[in-house]
Design brief:
This protein is mainly beta. It is built from one helix and four strands; from the N terminus they run ββββα.
Length: about 100
């Protein structure tokens, strides 16, 4: 199975909340990592998203340890929309 990983940076101008965390995350730029696998048997190249992770803390925070929190693309889209940032991280929109 062929897989690919895509990284992009998303910026929040205000602190934001995610369902899986009890405390809000700080404003800043975060790395979003999307893992996809090739859908075999098609006459064209297509990938299926298998995981989306947000690296925490923000990139500007100097820390030796970083964590990857599994998130849904919809949850990230909603958090960005509440922040006033327009970025669609839905299928096929990260490259």
């Amino acid at each position: 199975m062929i897989e690919r990983t895509t990284e992009t940076e998303i910026t929040f101008t205000n602190p934001f909340r995610l369902e899986t965390l009890s405390e809000p995350l700080e404003a800043g730029t975060y790395r979003l990592v999307v893992d996809e696998e090739l859908i075999e048997g098609l006459s064209f190249t297509a990938y299926r998203r298998v995981a989306t992770h947000l690296e925490i803390p923000a990139l500007s925070v100097a820390m030796a340890r970083r964590q990857f929190l599994q998130v849904s693309p919809a949850e990230i889209d909603e958090a960005l929309a509440r922040d006033g940032t327009v970025v669609d991280v839905g299928p096929g929109n990260i490259s």
